[in-house]
Specification:
six-stranded mixed beta sheet
Length: 384
């Protein structure tokens, strides 16, 4: 049996942020992940200034060896309708490739890792948690996304979860596809569904383009995705994306209180805890934030119960209480939304500044808009 002070299941931004903070204080941390790194991660792939601040990303150093696409403009509209352009005149976000970003975060954490280790069994044995009968620690952090086995251990399958489903593809633009692409690297494009139950995106990072769509209704996703791609091609925004390489993923919005985030000696972070912002669906910032808060609770807590209590309380302070589940927009709301999305003022000051970029004053301890306000905003779900 291999022992550690803390076992973390999942090496993405939540797990690596937690690991880094713990290792910095001398804790022995072991991170398990089902896949070797670098690995593909379904994600549109952009990070906001609060993420840059929280992870302490050295922009010039990172850009020298990785994809870091400055984003200063956006194109926002409705699928099948009019779009408006918003220009900030300077970078307000950065496009990244998750295969690079996540590997960099995990490598920088300094934690011991066991990659390619799929978790098939988690149980409590006395004062420790045992994973796969090979690894043990008194504290267990689940950070392996929506289907995290630690989340199942803590919650089972609770009813009422607001699940967002998405499909995306990221590919290298070459030849005719590069010549036909009208998506500019510094200008992501966001297109909302007419019923406001989701939206699609085109995010270009240098020569790589990510195209995808996410919605609240799993059964209708294939139909809406096909229609979205056909519309993009018809509008000559892109050439047809490759038929292969599409990836699906699911996650929970922080609304409705569907998942417990902590138990005695067990903490959930990131998508495993269901923390995506309700207005934008952003997952990277709450993942990093929750991973760091989990580490703080572990370092400062006195006993397993106290660690869990501290963590849950700090999440509520930083992210705000769970928002109630939002109603599906009716026809009148959808019609009003379509009209608003054709307004450049609304696109900039509400959709972008408020929902996506956290540009209002104040905010969590990394800067930017308080996620507690994000979680109460009215908006579709975005799978970043």
């Amino acid at each position: 049996m291999e022992h550690a002070d803390v076992l973390i299941v999942g090496g993405g931004p939540a797990g690596s942020s937690c690991a880094r903070a713990l290792v910095a204080e001398g804790r022995d941390v072991l991170v398990l992940d089902a896949r070797p790194f670098p690995r593909d991660k379904p994600c549109a792939g952009w990070i906001t200034p609060p993420v840059v601040a929280r992870v302490g990303l050295p922009l010039d150093e990172y850009a020298a060896a990785h994809t870091l696409q400055p984003i200063s403009r956006f194109r926002v509209g409705r699928i099948g309708g009019r779009a408006v352009n918003v220009d900030y005149g300077a970078p307000v976000s950065y496009g990244i490739r998750r295969c690079e970003f996540d590997a960099w975060l995990l490598g920088r954490s300094g934690a011991r890792t066991r990659l390619g280790e799929r978790v098939v069994g988690v149980r409590r044995e006395g004062s420790e948690f045992s994973v796969n009968g090979r690894f043990a620690a008194p504290v267990l952090v689940g950070a392996a996304g929506h289907f995290c086995p630690v989340a199942r251990l803590l919650n089972g399958s609770p009813p009422g979860e607001t699940t967002i489903v998405a499909r995306e593809v990221e590919f290298l633009l070459e030849g005719d596809a590069l010549a036909a692409c009208r998506v500019e690297p510094e200008r992501p494009e966001l297109y909302f569904s007419s019923d406001l139950r989701g939206y699609g995106w085109c995010v270009r990072k240098g020569s790589h383009l990510n195209v995808g769509l996410g919605r609240r209704d799993p059964r209708a996703l294939p139909q809406h995705l096909a229609s979205f791609v056909e519309w993009l091609v018809r509008e000559r925004r892109i050439a047809a994306p490759p038929e292969a390489g599409w990836h699906g993923h699911a996650y929970l919005l922080r609304e409705g209180g569907a998942r417990r985030v902590a138990g005695d000696g067990v903490l959930l972070a990131g998508d495993a805890a269901g923390l995506a912002f309700a207005a934008s669906g952003e997952g990277i910032l709450p993942a990093v934030l929750s991973g760091q808060l989990a580490a703080e609770a572990i370092l400062e807590g006195h006993g397993a119960a106290d660690v869990g209590r501290r963590y849950a309380e700090r999440l509520a302070v930083e992210l705000g209480p769970d928002a109630p589940p939002r109603r599906v927009p009716g026809p009148l709301a959808a019609a009003a939304g379509a009209a608003l999305l054709s307004s450049a003022w609304f696109a900039r000051h509400v959709v972008l500044d408020r929902w996506f970029l956290h540009r209002a004053s104040g905010g969590p301890r990394g800067g930017g808009m308080p996620p507690r306000l994000e979680s109460r905003s009215v908006g579709p779900a975005y799978p970043p």
